[in-house]
Amino acid sequence: MGAYLSQPNTTKTSSDGGNSNMSYGFSAMQGWRVSMEDAHNCIPEFDEETAMFSVYDGHGGEEVALYCSKYLPDIIKEQKTYKDGKLQKALEDAFLAIDRRMIKEDVIKELIQIAGRPTEEPPAEKVAEEDDLDTEEASLLHEEATMTIEELLVRYGQNLNAVKHADGSEEEEGDSSEMEEEEDTEEGEEDSEDEEEEEMCLPGMDGKEEPGSDSGTTAVVALIRGKQLIVANAGDSRCVVSERGKAVDMSYDHKPEDELELARIKNAGGKVTMDGRVNGGLNLSRAIGDHFYKRNKALPPEEQMISAMPDVKVLTLNGDHDFMVIACDGIWNVLSSQEVVDFISERINKPDENGKVRVLSCIVEELLDHCLAPDTSGDGTGCDNMTCIIVTLRPHPSHQPDDTKKRKHPEELDSSKRDPRGLGY
Hints:
Elements: E1 4-18, E2 23-33, E3 38-43, E4 50-59, H1 63-78, H2 80-83, H3 87-101, H4 105-115, H5 123-145, H6 149-155, H7 160-168, H8 170-198, E5 216-217, E6 219-225, E7 228-234, E8 238-243, E9 246-249, H9 259-267, E10 288-289, E11 311-316, E12 321-327, H10 329-332, H11 337-348, H12 360-371, E13 386-392, E14 405-407
């Protein structure tokens, strides 16, 4: 079924936690996809004053998303601007800093390890393998050189009579071919511009895939410090705040066809195809990784075809703000921001069948199931990986201090690939 399973994997990894000021619930589900490429952070005690929540939606593999989940929190703290209290600038600096790491040799090796891809064979083994192929080819050529034309035709599935018939009508077909060539030439001249646009080199077309170059991730990161909510976003994952039940978008989906994004892509030497893809490949215009699209040495990182520079929005929180939702596009492609806020609002303070207040992660699990497509016969909506975090901007009744739980099948995750601190999926 191509990129999809025959049946969806609906096993969910979920957790709840919080502190004296807020509560969170999280859940993630692989769904119809053949692998899980999302990651996240839920860190209510990021430092003494700050909480951090984030979602990373990987593409081309899970490795860049997992790497960001593991290292981006510390990279944010390492920024001088963070230490100086300039959180907006610190997030911009951190996004660009972790993106620069993706082309370092030691990081590429770690990404390969995370991805579970085999390392390259030693040169000696490669040479031996190539020698074997050369020997086989030479033997085959020698054998065919001693065969009759009839034997060769039998070997390659041709019929001698068909060839003779073709010889008899050679002149007629030749005239027809000339006419077709003339028509093709005229059509070729008319469509040459379209063909040029389609002749684009895509990641991995050379037969070699390199993590961080041919793979990447979106990143939406929310920091809460006191009454300030600071959200940085690169890609099409999204953060939304509920203000008395009204959805307030705290991020902007970066799509190649958008005016500002398109101008940057073209200025960097790229194109956007009719289906909204950069050079026929990525269908988003900002991401961490994807250095295949970041090779214009005349331009700074923030002006490349695909940029890791995030947009940053700030909101001063007050009593009208109920909760925040951070999720990947597996959710937002199915429901609008307002529909997600409505879905959560209907459940967040209402008791379950046992009369108890719903646990936040259970609400997220309901949301994931609601967004899951019944099959893969449609346009792909509801067939993606799904990851979502709900953060109440005051303690939730279902949350007990220091009560964090996780639910997952033991076989679902390879712990060697995950952050030992348990921060990332």
